């Protein structure tokens, strides 16, 4: 969702011919002409994949004790932020398509997007440092990074994201609105998106240098067979770090790309980054697209999540099979008992014989 400063700056869920300046007249001239089959299809895919993927990660974390590691606390926090981001996006779409006057809540929608986006990206910066610490201090990681400390960090992330998002209210002052927006969006991009990206990049470069060193020198076979040895612990942490790296890189890159475009539009009032309406719709929805794809990547890379998904599918299949068997038995029950239920006389031996 681009910020409301330029006529060319469009809201993330709205068609390219809609600007914030036209929001005030939406109740009198309601039109959905900017939406086509591609827009509806993309919105439906984002909604289904994002809610199902992020929801599954949260449910798995809540129900499977084995998944409640310190690193997964931060991953679940990312899933919650992505889930909320898509929810507010869906509400925003619904208000627009129902021709409800959205002008009073435009600012609120931008604040919520900044809140959830900042919480997501800062969480990835935190989990990247968590992986760096786990690899460089493999033997001390378990005693240092406790669940309580992870929860404290997560609370701090949300407090920080809330404060930075609420600063957008400064644009309500019409006398300094434009200048304030330029300063605010530049600072937001620097502190909430670019710096976490740099921190993550530094952490993963160091992690992979350690991994290369580990591969060159190797480790005795007896150490690798011992799950409590330093070599075995380091190997496990490196594997987890690789999964988080694959999750983090596209997420951080796309968010930085998205906000770099936003900064460019804010600084250059009459500039337009993309000309095609379809391309503009795609670019403006990049945060929601990555929120839908990321959980699927993490599920595919994480063995415990894959096993939980397979177990759930098997349980569902067994449940449907039992229901089908019960239904078949209930259908055959009257036929096998019709003689006993209709029996009105005779001795007991005859009734048993007829059954």
Give a nutshell description of this structure.
The chain has 355 residues and is mostly helical. The chain has helices at 37-63, 70-97, 106-136, 141-144, 147-166, 177-217, 221-225, 230-267, 277-284, 286-301, 303-342, 348-354.
Which CATH first-tier class would you pick? Answer: Mainly Alpha
Cα separation of the termini: 72 Å
Structural class: mainly alpha
Largest sheet: none
Number of helices: 12
Uncertain runs are: 1-29, 338-346, 348-355
Characteristics:
about 350 residues; mainly alpha; Rhopdopsin 7-helix transmembrane proteins; 12 helices; about 75% helix; disordered C terminus
Reconstruct the topology from this structure.
Blueprint: H1 37-63, H2 70-97, H3 106-136, H4 141-144, H5 147-166, H6 177-217, H7 221-225, H8 230-267, H9 277-284, H10 286-301, H11 303-342, H12 348-354
Helix pairs in contact: 1-2, 1-10, 2-3, 2-5, 2-10, 3-5, 3-6, 3-8, 6-8, 8-10
How would you characterize the overall build of this protein?
- With 355 residues, the chain is mainly α.
- The protein has a single domain, classed as Rhodopsin 7-helix transmembrane proteins (Rhopdopsin 7-helix transmembrane proteins).
- The protein contains twelve helices and no strands.
- It has helices at residues 37-63, 70-97, 106-136, 141-144, 147-166, 177-217, 221-225, 230-267, 277-284, 286-301, 303-342, 348-354.
- It is globular and about 65 Å long.
- 31% of the residues are buried.
- Residues 1-29, 338-346 and 348-355 have low confidence and may be disordered.
